[in-house]
Structure formats: C-alpha cells, structure tokens
Amino acid sequence: MSKTYRVAILGATGAVGTEFLELLASRQFPLADLKLLASPRSAGRTIQFAGESLPVEAVSEAAFNNVDIVLASAGGSTSKLWAAKAVAAGAVVIDNSSAFRMEPNVPLVVPEVNPQAAFTHQGIIANPNCTTILMAVAVWPLHQVEPVQRIVAATYQSASGAGARAMEEMKEQAQAILQGEEAKTEIFPYPLAFNLFTHNSKLNELGYCEEEMKMVNETRKIFANPEMRITATCVRVPVLRAHSEAINLEFGSPFPVAKAKEILSQSPGVKLVEDWQANYFPMPMEASGKDDVLVGRIREDISNPNGLELWLSGDQIRKGAALNAVQIAELLVKENLPSPPELAVSGKN
Q1: Which of 121, 130, 143, 234 is catalytic?
Q2: Which residues are annotated as a binding site for phosphate?
Q3: Are 308 and 180 part of one and the same domain?
Q4: Catalytic site residue 130?
C-alpha cells in the first residue's frame, strides 16, 4: 500500500462515523487526505484525528472533488441524495445504508465471504446490514465445506443498532425506572431498559419486518444463492452495544460438531469462545469493541440429525458496520483502487 488515498467520511459525527475514524487510524489506512462531512447543523465542529483537529464540512457536491473513497453512514435518504454525485466526481462510495444493497448492479460485500464482488462495482459498493454481516462471517466457513440448506435465525439486537442517541435513551430510561419514574421514549417506540420488543421496522404482508427480510435477502445475495431457505426473528434487547444471534443450520447430511469447531477456530473474522464446564459462551459485553465475531455453544440439533446450533455475539458498530466498510476499502487499495465505470445506479427511491 505505497500509494495514498483521499478519503471522505459522510456522516462523520455519528456513531459509525466515529468508529471509521478510530479504524482508519488504528489500521494505518494509507491516507493522503481526510474530509469529514455531515449535515449543515454539524458544520464548523472539529474532531480530533491523529493529533490534528479536523473541521466538519457540510456535505455538498463540491465536497466530493478530489476524493478517492467515500465511507458513507448517514442514512439511506442521504446516500440516495449524494452517492451518485460522489461517483460523478470520481469517488468510489462504500455505503453503509440500505439504499443500494439489493440493486443488482451494486455489489454487497463481506470481505471474509465474497471479496471478489467488490471489484465488480460501478462506483458504489454496499455494506450489508449488521445482523447479516455477523451471521455471514460465522456461517460461510461451514457452508464452504457442506452447503447449508436452511438457516433459522433469532437476533438479540442492542441499542447501538439505532445509533448513539438510542444508547443514551436506554441509559436514561434505566435511571428513570430505578428511581420510580416514567421511562420516556424518543428514538424507540417503547422503553428498552428492562424490556425487549420485536424489531419495530415496517411489517410486510407475511408479517416479517424489514430487518428480518434484510437478513433473508442480503444473505441470499452475498452467498449467491437466491433460493436459499432462510427465516429470521429480530428482537431488540436492553444491551448497550453488540448484537447476538442464535443460529440453527440445516445441512444435507450430519455435520460433526468437532469438525465445525475446527473449521470456525481457523476462520477469518471468527473467534471461538467456549467453556462448557463454566457455561461460558459469547456475550455482547465481551464482543464490544472487538473486530472478531465471537462464536460458540456449537451443538447438534437434537430435533434434526442434519442440524447444527450455534450462538454468536458481534459488535454492531464495528464489524457490523464501520470495520466491514473499511475492510472493503482495504481490498480496493490493495488493487490500486480501480476507477469506477459509468455510474449505473439512479440514486432514486
């Protein structure tokens, strides 16, 4: 990586934007220049990076001039408004929102799973949903040995999935409840402290919410298997940071537990965490701030001879968002950042 690159962070003041900054520094990304972009209300702020005070600029078309890579995490509507403009200015956009994930000409990439897809981009590369990324990192190594026939997932999603303000809201709710006061809600529809509720994204006609369908559709795209049988139930739980998932896998034949453990213990992005005598397995508290997805409690499905159960915890802000995007950028710079062909996404709703 002798060449250096000009990077812009769109959504620099948010939780994922803050994580982008930490990762660019800690992973020594080859930066020639760094721009921090956000909404006009954040313009004029300064953020510390590598010993410097960098100004936050209001996003504009001119802000993308002389930028090689845009790391975007400012929401779907913002990405739809600005991504095409950034590409037209000559940048490659790695977008963390759901805006472009299911567009057929936009690669959806988890570097441990389908790194080659990044090089088919036409200016925009999509970062998958956090729950999809965590599951894919754990399931893919097993799928490579014995194709998975069916996935049944249940998620236990932390407040961090709704952003930094949601985390603060849960803290305030906990304090209020402990003091015998009413728990007020602003970000979430219901109190999350000392509570849980099924994911409150919009339901479809089959009763599945958007978060659940993201896991279904995005996993199919990443695994290049549009007919893969997947179902999910997504739940928000009173955890500050890092998501957990219970995954049931069905194979075409029995998959030995010892073999699964051996594979996962050697898989990139995975850390095997198991102590059966101590009943010690992955926990979100221990996954927080970590790059790896913690995987454990691997066991046979006693209801299905071809089934395997596993449990995982992973940092939603880190591997579930910012780290995955930075890893995609690292893939590109290793190949000297191929220039995007003519933009082939409209940026429309």
Answers
A1: 130
A2: 101
A3: yes
A4: yes
